[in-house]
Amino acid sequence: MSELHEVCRFVDRPINHDYVFKLKNYLKEGIPATYTLEEAYHVENDIEDKELSSTTTPLHIIASHIPQDATEDEEAIILEMLNELLLWGAGWSLIDKDDQTPGCILDKRGFHGSEYWNTIVNAGVRAEILLRKVEDNIEFIEDESVNINEETIGEEADNGQSVNTKADDDEDNAIQEIRQQLRDDPSNTTSTYLKTKLEYKDGALVTKERGDGVMMSWEETLMQAGCDSMFKNQQPDNDHCVLNIGFGMGIIDAMIQKKKPRKHYICEAHPDVLAKMKEEGWMNKENVVVLSGKWQDQVSELLSKGVFFDGIYYDTYSEHYEDMLDLFDLVVGLLKPEGVFSFFNGLGADRRVVYDVYRKLVELDLNNYGLKVSFKELVPPKETLNKPTDTGDSVWDDIRRAYWSCPVYYHPEAEFM
Ligand SMILES: C[S@@+](CC[C@H](N)C(=O)[O-])C[C@H]1O[C@@H](n2cnc3c(N)ncnc32)[C@H](O)[C@@H]1O
Description:
Number of strands: 10
GO biological process, one term: methylation
Bound molecules: S-adenosylmethionine
Family: Belongs to the class I-like SAM-binding methyltransferase superfamily. RMT2 methyltransferase family.
CATH architecture of the largest domain: 3-Layer(aba) Sandwich
Strand order of the largest sheet: 6-5-4-7-8
Strand content: 5-15%
Main location: cytoplasm
Keywords: Cytoplasm, Methyltransferase, Nucleus, S-adenosyl-L-methionine, Transferase
Subcellular location: Cytoplasm; Nucleus
Radius of gyration: 25 Å
């Protein structure tokens, strides 16, 4: 173990300024803030070129060693150390051999909501904002448009310019393979998802072959909260008009119908789901307007039709945070001044620390649109936290990937400021 790692273990108490002093020195001397235990082991044992299988960084070590009985002064020192490491680029979301980020370790040790936790979450928010800016400023070249002259690959070794080594090729191939896997994954790519066969099965809507969970009945209480938000400002004149994007199992739409709105728009893109809606008679309901197709095409058309909503709910599948940011452009144009916008908040929900980072990010983004957001904390069924079992006490049995693993759900409710 290196001296940098040693200093993160808080062996000597009290934890005082010497710790900060030593840490700053190591970082100034050029030791990376992400220097891992595994790297140190390789250096100490003269192991070369072996790929690292995990990354136990100084942040992980600190998170594992913060004393439960730290005094206020000690806490201030530890926070200074965390901030110093983060300043020098210590990765807030890197994972160690146990697949844990520093935040995951803090959470397991009971530090959720502590100042240590907030420090990591705030660093995550800053990093995500920075990443977005960097990505905004980079012009990506589509693979197809790159004209590769195969003869020139690897030719420039003599004049000291680009050398295409086998390692480069392997890396390129690996990247291409990952990209292709993502494109073929219906949970990641909408065009693939919309061509994938679905089935309604055991209280869930899943992709037929792979068993990806598109919608599951355990989300019922979350849908009720979404529905209640949409009707929060309902007036006695019964002029209420709402839009739900993503029908899925129709859970929230059935709840909306019970509230008897004047008009109930539903936007749905998947042919199998649209067939189910037809079978259940949704196309013929007097107060229902079904917009068949992607919201990107269907909902934007409403902007020019003078249709405005008291409530908008968004819950789709295979889309990403960037898609929701695009939706905000439409929401501000379609929501009445007293209207409420809500959505299924599963952003980053497979890790609690990432979930907290996204809670802050989405708040910042909505604020940019003049929308303030509040979050009501709900407790999802405890079976969502169980790993798949044979005994039936996990909701994830037979589901390809658990898309939820947080003890608390942050139900969002956004309104104009
Ligand atoms: C998670 S389900 C919605 C569940 C729903 N809230 C309920 O209560 O049952 C997501 C739905 O969004 C649909 N969807 C996915 N992308 C879409 C898009 N771009 N436009 C419209 N619908 C979309 C999916 O086909 C799926 O039916």
